[in-house]
Amino acid sequence: MSSAKKFNLEKSLSDLEELVEELESGDLPLEKAMKKFEEGIKLTRGCQTALKEAEQKVEILLQNAGSEDLDDFLVDDED
Fold first, then answer.
1. Is the pLDDT of residue 2 over 60?
2. In angstroms, rounded to a whole number, what is the distance separating the alpha carbons of residues 29 and 34?
3. Among 40, 48, 51, 64, which residue's beta carbon has the most beta carbons within 10 A?
């Protein structure tokens, strides 16, 4: 990120997974669940921003390299 505080994507994704597990357990009181949900939304937005910035950097690097004939990157979802 362009801010002084460096965003750690891997840590944020790990924290988000943990939050989802807590929320899915159904053991949290409503108020605490709402706070966890809000925290998850903030983490999600941060992750989306970091990924978008990375995508833009890759596009700039590819343009600077003069590579215009690119194949789409396909991801196998085996989860």
1. no
2. 9
3. 40
Contacts of 64 by beta carbon, 8 Å cutoff, 6+ apart: none
User: Among 10, 6, 12, 3, which Cα is nearest to 42's?
Assistant: 12
**Structure tokens, 21:** 């597990």
Residues 6+ apart with CB under 8 A from 49: 1, 7
What domains can be seen in the chain, in order of their start residue? Answer: 9-64 (1.10.287.1040)
pTM of the model: 0.66
Rounded (10°) CA dihedral 20, 24, 28, 31: 60
Encoded tokens for 31: 């108020």
Mean pLDDT of 12-30: 93
